Amino acid sequence: MQSMFSTLWGDEPQPKRQDKSARPAVAVVKHETESASPEETSEIQSKTNTCSRTKHDINGDIKRLSEAFFSGHELQSGFVIETTLHDLLAVCPRKRRRKDAYKSLIHALNKKGVELIFLENSCMRN
User: Fold this and answer.
1) What's the half-sphere exposure (Cβ side, CA atoms, 13 Å) at 57?
2) Residues 94, 79: Cα–Cα separation, whole Å
3) Closest by alpha carbon to 104, among 69, 90, 96?
4) Cα 112 to Cα 106: distance, rounded to the nearest angstrom
5) Tens-of-pLDDT digits for all 126 residues of the chain?
6) Which pTM does this prediction carry?
7) Alpha-carbon distance 44 to 93, whole Å?
8) Distances from the Cα of 59 to the Cα of 6, 7, 31, 46, 119, angstroms
9) Which of 7, 101, 107, 121 has the most CB atoms lying inside 10 A of its own CB?
10) How far is CA 21 from CA 14, 17, 27, in A?
11) Contact present, 58 and 94 (Cβ < 8 Å)
12) For residues 28 and 89, what is the distance between their CA atoms, to the nearest angstrom?
């Protein structure tokens, strides 16, 4: 094999690879920092958990629905909103363009006594 390599790259000897074990040892120094007290940490975590669970502004969505479907009148118990997913996405956009992206909105509307019904798109029926 050495003759093959010498014909490709010349007669110059190639430098040998260094063994990884020959590397000098590096000292690892851990700097201790002041940590937050447990009360502060749990407070921060609880605030973070609440924010991460509520991804969308549900009150803003409800306000936009009332403006779009009821000319700005406040939603009342007994109201029914029948719309397609496409139309609802225009009023209350979501990254996930599926019905299940509106579970929290449907739940909030149900608490107010308002029902949200998804209609099938006429172009999708065949």
Assistant:
1) 9
2) 23
3) 96
4) 10
5) 666 666 666 655 555 555 555 554 444 444 454 445 444 544 444 444 444 344 679 999 999 999 999 999 999 999 999 999 999 999 999 999 999 999 999 999 999 999 999 998 765 544
6) 0.54
7) 29
8) 76, 77, 46, 21, 23
9) 101
10) 21, 12, 15
11) no
12) 53
- Which two tokens mark 100? 């299940």
Taking CA atoms, 61 is separated from 50, 93, 94, in Å, by 18, 9, 11
The residue assigned the tokens 């991804």 is 55
Q: What are the tokens at 62? A: 């409800």
Tell me the one-letter amino acid at 47: K
Q: Which residue has the tokens 């050495």?
A: 2
Return the structure tokens found at 7: 């014909």
